[in-house]
Amino acid sequence: MPLEREHHEQAQVALVLFWVGPYRAALEACHVLAMTARPTALLTANAHSLLYEGGDHHPPPSRWLTLRDTQTASDHAASTWQLGVYGDLTLQHLPASTLYPLPKLLQSRRFSPALCGFTFEQQQLVLLLDAGKLSLHKP
Amino acid sequence: MNSETSRDSHANDQQQISQTLEEALAAHHDDESVVDVDEPTQQLVLFRINGQRFALPGSAVSEILPSDQPVYYVPGLPASTEGVLHLRGKIESVINLQPLLDLPTLEGTPSGMILLVSASGIRSGVRIEQLDDVCEIAQSLLQPPPETLSSTLLPYVSALWQIDERQALALLDPEALFSAYQQGLG
Predict the structure, then answer these.
(1) Across all residues in chain A, what is the average pLDDT?
(2) Do the interacting molecules here have an ipTM over 0.90?
(3) Strand-pair category, B52-57 with B168-172
(4) Which of A106, A47, A28 is nearest to B73 (CA)?
(5) B123–chain A nearest CA distance, Å
(6) Residue B32 in domain
(7) Number of other residues whose CB lies within 10 A of the CB of residue A19
(8) Do the Cβ atoms of A13 and A96 come closer than 8 Å?
(9) What is the pTM of this model?
(10) Other residues' Cβ atoms within 10 Å of the Cβ of residue B25
(11) Structural domain containing residue B88
């Protein structure tokens, strides 16, 4: 077995899994700086409104994930924002081989450029999100 | 057995053989659908969407998946995207062609098979209503799409197969379909 492939099959990726309405989603754990019960940052956004159209009318998030603001990070190194999510948050180390990229056909049609792939948790689809492309500004 | 009887019997045999050959040749002439082995052929996957008959080149269809193949809904994608499916360690998109082909989208749970279609380096599932056949036909039977074809279908139809006087079938161009989908159509 080629070394690179063997490495991929054995490697694991730490992910923070959460709910966005009825959908399960995940961010790479290294991008999540903190988690709070209430928003503490100046800039916040509800995950619903960033991921799909019509996601504006939902109850207030139950958890806030603090992320680095990659849009303004070059100007303000310490700039952060918070993403509002729901339900039980779990930290999981998933095998890299079980993380699948977004099919090519869907790349130009996704509402959010942050949607980068999928994995499964107990046979439920999990949306993999690229924290660096999770923009505060709607596309 | 006398020689006269033997001659009559031989004549009858000859008549029978001659007649059988005639029948065989006549039958051969009548069978116009037999494909000349030297003529180029094309494999087609024949199917229906909303009752309308379409085909895709067999070379573009790598697999035909059963209707009960689980498809997972993905939020934030156009309505023409049914979702994704998990097949042998890969995730494939599943789209509906109705919006592109200007056909009404049917309500309810999709119940037809899924064709796994590859074109232009892209692979995706395409939901159909009903699989009719996988067959090989002479390329000469495929005619260029007529100018009278509806303007919504024309960009996606590479050829027309006039099956008989009443029935025609549109051969879809998978590259054109995927390209249009990527450009935001459908």
Answers:
(1) 87
(2) no
(3) parallel
(4) A106
(5) 8
(6) no
(7) 17
(8) yes
(9) 0.82
(10) 10
(11) 56-182
